[in-house]
């Protein structure tokens, strides 16, 4: 982990969709200033639609080394310092323990695309919608933080 960059951890329930997208977009938009990470409270494999919709915008999560990670095992137990802990779902926001090695804590609530019920085409559309919302929010975050420095 590079100590010259601001370390940001995106937290979600399972680390299978929203937090993975946010991590990837922060690497893309702010990689020179931020060290992006993601984790889940109860990690599950990355959702296939997450992989698909990110590939549609040129981001190959598998090639980039993305995998589901546990907040407790990979960050909390190792006392990893964070500049930001950003929860991206209401469940993680409600259930996340106090993180004593964290700087700023923020909540960015995004709808869970994996919970959306519909046809495969409708489900993919929901994943794309949430992906685009996350991309816009991460881009705004990078611009906002750039203005502060």
Question: How would you characterize this protein structure?
Answer:
This protein is of the alpha/beta class. It has one domain (6-143): Rossmann fold. Helix content is 42%, strand content 17%. It is built from 5 helices and 4 strands, in the order E-H-E-H-H-E-H-E-H. It has helices at 18-30, 48-56, 71-76, 90-95, 120-148, and strands at residues 6-12, 34-40, 82-87, 102-107. Strands 2-1-3-4 form a 4-stranded parallel beta sheet. Strand 1, helix 1 (18-30) and strand 2 (34-40) form a beta-alpha-beta unit. Helix 1 (18-30) crosses helix 5. The longest helix has 29 residues, at 120-148. It is globular and about 40 Å long. The two termini are 21 Å apart. The model has no long low-confidence stretch (mean pLDDT 90).
